[in-house]
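Forwarding these from the shared drive since the link keeps breaking.
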Amino acid sequence: MPKQKTNSSAKKRFKLTASGKIKRKKAFKSHILTKKSRKTKRNLGKTTVISAADKGRVLRQLNLA
């Protein structure tokens, strides 16, 4: 049986934490930043944890499920 392939875009976008949660970067930080406040831009730079609804999909893309 052939090896399973990991989704290349998913392995670049997501990281696993030690407790098994999946971290991701926030969207909307790449352009059109002049109309966004300092606070918004600062908070968009941080990482967050994916929602429970998306966890199965992401784990399947990373071949961990």
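-- next protein --
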Amino acid sequence: MAGDIPEGFSALNFFGIGFIDVNGPLYGKRDGKYFLLGFRVEPRHCNPANICHGGMLMTFADMQLPFGIRLQADIDPGFLPTVHLSAEFLAPAPLGAWVEGRTEVLRTTRNLAFAQCLVTADALPVLRASGIFKVASTKGDVAPLERVLGKLP
């Protein structure tokens, strides 16, 4: 199950960086101007009904949105702490499903970035999220994306 990753996705390397590292493994892929983030739902991601826990889906959206902003925005926002995150759960993501997100950057200012994403499980929509993120620092203050992302296709 965990080895069945869609073509073009590469494992992201968080180098043991706390919360993000223990909730993976996560995979990334460039798709034109978009950055896609994905993971395979494992038993540790599930609630007692064997579907992906809502907290894991929210965590995933809270990672998908800033990664998408950092790779798709017209600015280099550096680190992006979450100011606001909201979501609608649309359907369950069952054990074994491939979960994938795609970010749409809506607006960036000097201080804030606004974005939304759609998260799917086996290509069916399961979560729609939107967020506001604080443009908190310059690129030099956070781990370089190249270190985490490696060489994505």
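The chain has three helices and seven strands. Helices lie at 18-22, 54-72, 145-149.

- D.
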